[in-house]
Design goal:
21% strand; alpha/beta
C-alpha cells in the first residue's frame, strides 16, 4: 500500500483565517492532539513574524511528541544579500526544528512586480537559502508559491525554480495552488509532468477558492504527489485551505492509501471538533465525514431503509471516522423512525407507545417545535411519554428584568427551584436574558449537581414560526450545548421569547443530568 505523508498547517495557514486566533496554549495543545492523531508534520508558524510564534518554538521543545515533526516556516533570503546574514533564516535556525519549510517565488510576475528582483536573483535566493539551512543540518521542504499560475505564465521558469530547490537539497517540493483557481484535471496533469522531471518527492498545497481544495489534493496524489498539505476543517485565509479531515478520510477509505495510522481514523471527528473549540468556531454540521449531519437521516423512506441496512444510504460506517448515525425526528417521520430513535428504550413491541410518541411529535411540530436539531428535547419527550421521566428539580418561578444603569444595559434573572425538598432562590446578572437565566439556573443547581460545571451553551438560534401573527407570533428557540465529550440540542416554543429560551435551557440542563446520574 502506498504511503502519503500528512503536513498540517493549521497553526500557520489556518490561523490566517478570518476570526481565527490561537493562543500559545492553544497552539501547544493542538500540537499534542495532532501528534496523537498521527500527523507526520506540524507547521508551527514563522518564528520572526510575531512574539507568540517565537515563544511557541521555544515551548514546543519541552513537548514529547510520539510521531510528528514540528516545522518552522519562513521565506527565502532577501534579495541581493547573504543567506548567512539574513535575520529570517537566523530565526528559523534558532527555532531548532528538525524540518524547515521555505516558501519561494515561482511565478515570474511575482518575482519582478512584487519582489522587485531579477529572475536569476530569485533562483539564487532559492538555492542559497536551502543550501544554508541544509548545511546547518535541517531537512528542508520547499513551497513553490503560485506554482500553477506561474507554470501557466512561464513553464520553463517555473520548472527552473523547482530544479534549483532540488539541486540545493530540498527533500520535497510542494506545488502550491495559492490562489485556489486551478481545476483538478490541470492539477493532475502538472503534478505528473513535474514527477517526471525531478527526482525528489512532490507535495501539494491547495486553497479552496473554487471549493476544489480537497478534489485538487486527491487529484495530485493520484498523479504521484506523496505529501498533502492542508488544515483541520479547511480553515484558512479567504475561502480556506484543503480540509485535511476529508483528504485523510478519502485517501484512506476510498483509495486504500496508507495515511496516518489505521486506528487514527476513528479520531477524526473528535479532532475536528477539538479544533472548532480551540478556534471558538461553530461546528459545520454538513461537513463531510465528521459533521453532525454527515450521517443524519430524516425522510421516512430513508430511515426505514437504514434501519434494515445502513449501507442503503451511507457510503461508509460512521464509526470508521469516529462519528455516529442520527435518525432525525420530524412530521415526516413514521414508525420506523420512532423505532430507530427509541431503540435504547426497548419499545419495539410497544406499538401504542410509538404511536403516542409520533402523535406528540406531530402535534408539537404543528405548534412550531422542531426536533431535527434538538435531539435532547426529543429524548426527554420519549421519557415523558413512556413514564420514564423523573424531574431533577421543580420549576417554581422565574423573572427577568432589563434596565439601563448609566450607560450600561443591565439584565438580571431570578429563579426559584425546588431541589431535594429545599427551595433555592438565586439571582444572577448576564449579558442578556438568556445568559442571565443560564447563570441563575446554574447557581441554584451546581451545589447539588457539580457535573453541570462541564456544560456550556455554545449556540443560540431564534426563528419566528408564524410570522403573520406579527408581534404575537410564536418563536422557536434552539440551543446547542456541549461538555467535554458531547454536543446536544434542545428546543422551546412560546409567544414569549424569554419563555421559549427558558424551556430550551431547562431541557439542556435536564439532558445533561440524565447523562451523568440518577434523577432525585
Amino acid at each position: 500500500m502506498p504511503r502519503v505523508f500528512v503536513y498540517d498547517t493549521t497553526l500557520r495557514d489556518g490561523s490566517q483565517g478570518e476570526g481565527v486566533n490561537f493562543s500559545l496554549h492553544d497552539k501547544l495543545a493542538l500540537t499534542k492532539r495532532l501528534d496523537e492523531l498521527g500527523v507526520d508534520f506540524i507547521e508551527g508558524g514563522y518564528p520572526l513574524s510575531n512574539p507568540k510564534d517565537a515563544e511557541y518554538f521555544e515551548a514546543v521543545k519541552s513537548l514529547t511528541l510520539k510521531h510528528a515533526k514540528v516545522c518552522a516556516f519562513g521565506m527565502t533570503r532577501k534579495k541581493n544579500s547573504e543567506a548567512a546574514n539574513d535575520t529570517g533564516l537566523k530565526a528559523l535556525l534558532e527555532a531548532e526544528t528538525p524540518v524547515v519549510t521555505i516558501v519561494g517565488k515561482t511565478w515570474d510576475f511575482h518575482v519582478t512586480n512584487v519582489l522587485g528582483a531579477t529572475l536569476d536573483e530569485n533562483l539564487r535566493m532559492i538555492g542559497d537559502t536551502i543550501e544554508h539551512l541544509r548545511a546547518a543540518g535541517r531537512t528542508v521542504m520547499y513551497d513553490a508559491e503560485h506554482f500553477f499560475d506561474g507554470y501557466r505564465a512561464n513553464p520553463e521558469y517555473a520548472l527552473k525554480t523547482l530544479l534549483t530547490a532540488e539541486e540545493a537539497g530540498a527533500s520535497v517540493v510542494i506545488l502550491c495552488d495559492t490562489n485556489g483557481g486551478t481545476m483538478p484535471e490541470r492539477v493532475a496533469e502538472l503534478v505528473a509532468i513535474i514527477r517526471a522531471r525531478i527526482d525528489c518527492e512532490v507535495g501539494i498545497h491547495c486553497h479552496n477558492d473554487c471549493e476544489l481544495g480537497v478534489a485538487n489534493t486527491l487529484a495530485a496524489v493520484r498523479a504521484g504527489a506523496t505529501q498533502v498539505q492542508g488544515t483541520m476543517n479547511g480553515i484558512g485565509e479567504r475561502c480556506g485551505n484543503a480540509d485535511l479531515i476529508s483528504v485523510i478520510a478519502n485517501l484512506s477509505l476510498k483509495y486504500g492509501i496508507d495515511v496516518l495510522r489505521p486506528e487514527s481514523l476513528r479520531g477524526l471527528t473528535e479532532a475536528s471538533r477539538y479544533v472548532y473549540e480551540l478556534a471558538n468556531m461553530n461546528l459545520r454540521t454538513g461537513q463531510p465525514f465528521v459533521g453532525q449531519s454527515a450521517f443524519a437521516h430524516k425522510g421516512g423512506m430513508h430511515t426505514h431503509a437504514v434501519a434494515k441496512d445502513p449501507t442503503t444510504y451511507e457510503h461508509i460506517a460512521p464509526e470508521q471516522v469516529g462519528n455516529e448515525r442520527r435518525i432525525l425526528v420530524s412530521e415526516l417521520s413514521g414508525h420506523a423512525t420512532i423505532l430507530s430513535k427509541t431503540s435504547k428504550y426497548s419499545l419495539a413491541n410497544d406499538k401504542a407507545a410509538m404511536t403516542k410518541i409520533l402523535h406528540m411529535v406531530q402535534d408539537l411540530e404543528n405548534q412550531g417545535y422542531e426536533f431535527e436539531a434538538a435531539e435532547a428535547s426529543f429524548d426527554l419527550l420519549v421519557k415523558k411519554a413512556t413514564g420514564l421521566y423523573k424531574p431533577w428539580f421543580e420549576r417554581l418561578s422565574y423573572r427577568v428584568e432589563t434596565e439601563h444603569v448609566g450607560d450600561r444595559l443591565r439584565t438580571e434573572a431570578t429563579v426559584k427551584l425546588g431541589i431535594n425538598g429545599t427551595v433555592e432562590h438565586t439571582v444572577s446578572e448576564g449579558d442578556g436574558p438568556v445568559n442571565a437565566l443560564d447563570a441563575a439556573l446554574r447557581k441554584a443547581l451546581l451545589p447539588y449537581y457539580p457535573n453541570l460545571d462541564e456544560m456550556r451553551l455554545v449556540d443560540y438560534k431564534v426563528r419566528v414560526v408564524n410570522g403573520r401573527e406579527g408581534t404575537a407570533a410564536r418563536v422557536r428557540v434552539v440551543i446547542e450545548s456541549r461538555d467535554g465529550s458531547d454536543v446536544w440540542g434542545t428546543v422551546g416554543v412560546s409567544e414569549n421569547i424569554i419563555e421559549a429560551s427558558y424551556l430550551a435551557l431547562v431541557d439542556a440542563i435536564e439532558f445533561k443530568l440524565y447523562q451523568t446520574g440518577d434523577a432525585v
